[in-house]
Amino acid sequence: MVRESSKISTEFIQTAARILKTLGHPDRIKIVEFLEDGEKTVGQIQRELNLLQPVTSQHLKVMYDRNIVTFRQKGTRYFYSLANNFIIKILDCMSEVQEKLDSGEWDFDFSKIENQKEAV
Amino acid sequence: MVRESSKISTEFIQTAARILKTLGHPDRIKIVEFLEDGEKTVGQIQRELNLLQPVTSQHLKVMYDRNIVTFRQKGTRYFYSLANNFIIKILDCMSEVQEKLDSGEWDFDFSKIENQKEAV
DNA sequence: GTATTATATATGAAAAGTAATATATAATGC
DNA sequence: GCATTATATATTACTTTTCATATATAATAC
């Protein structure tokens, strides 16, 4: 459970950075969390998150291009699902952190980073 | 170890997105990984990653603003260190995934997402 | 006090990401 | 075939990020 300081490979760092960056959007986190429940159509996702259809498709396309989600097509429906275990790991990680925060075991100064104007 | 599907709160999603996005840069992942070893000065980080000094400071400033790193000043030296446990969790997560990939237990199509031109 | 070292800040250009509007495509129901 | 439904793609304006160059600041060594 505790990290052994085995260096992360350069190759994996590239990939990980790409994935973390892509998941660094609230709606995309919500989408993958929703998909953890099982495959969903674009319409289901759109309604669940209250997004515009093209925006939903755009997020899914970006995530498909980066190997975060995959899909199967059935008629006019596209059923999207999570493409790999890394994503599930990240979701697990977020859940664990949320629990620690909820239980008060960890503290986190949300105010410090939210709704903050970008720098550099 | 297996995720209980307790919804992640909207508030935390905002924060998590911010953090994931910020860590979504190869050099920044390398920096936090280096910091896991203990606090480091800007110069140490710069030399370790072979970056320009202002670029190093810029990365550190962005991460400071988003509560990923913190620092103490001693003379002209700034000693940076990790600011919270969430970051360590993410590093753990990446290590675990790397191990699974190395061991062949998991497979991941790196080619699919690397050096790829952006889409929308 | 002058030079040097360590680091921060300012600025600007180029690249990437975001979100909206409009349009295309393709399957389905009638 | 025609309308409808589900989704993708194109385009564009806007915002943010990234990286480099230049400069400022402040402590230290001499």
Chain-wise SSE layout:
2 copies of one chain form a homodimer.
Chain A: H1 10-23, H2 26-35, E1 40-41, H3 42-49, H4 53-65, E2 69-74, E3 77-82, H5 85-103
The structure holds a DNA duplex (30 and 30 nucleotides).
Q: How would you describe what is shown here?
A:
The structure is a homodimer of 120-residue chains. In chain A, helix 3 packs across helix 4. Chain A is built from 5 helices and 3 strands. The first copy, chain A, is mainly alpha-helical and 120 residues long. In chain A, strands 1-3-2 form a 3-stranded antiparallel sheet. Chain A has a single domain (12-103), classed as Arc Repressor Mutant, subunit A. Chain A is globular. The first copy, chain A, has helices at residues 10-23, 26-35, 42-49, 53-65, 85-103; strands spanning 40-41, 69-74, 77-82. In chain A, strand 2 and strand 3 form a beta hairpin. The first copy, chain A, starts with 9 loop residues before the first helix and ends in a 17-residue tail after the last helix. The interface between A and B is large, with 64 and 64 residues. The first copy, chain A, binds a DNA duplex (30 and 30 nucleotides) through helix 4.
Task: Please supply descriptive tags for the structure shown above.
mainly alpha, DNA-binding, 5 helices, homodimer, 120 residues, Arc Repressor Mutant, subunit A, disordered C terminus, 3-stranded antiparallel sheet
Task: Produce a short descriptive summary.
Two copies of one chain form a homodimer. Chain A has helices spanning 10-23, 26-35, 42-49, 53-65, 85-103, and strands spanning 40-41, 69-74, 77-82.
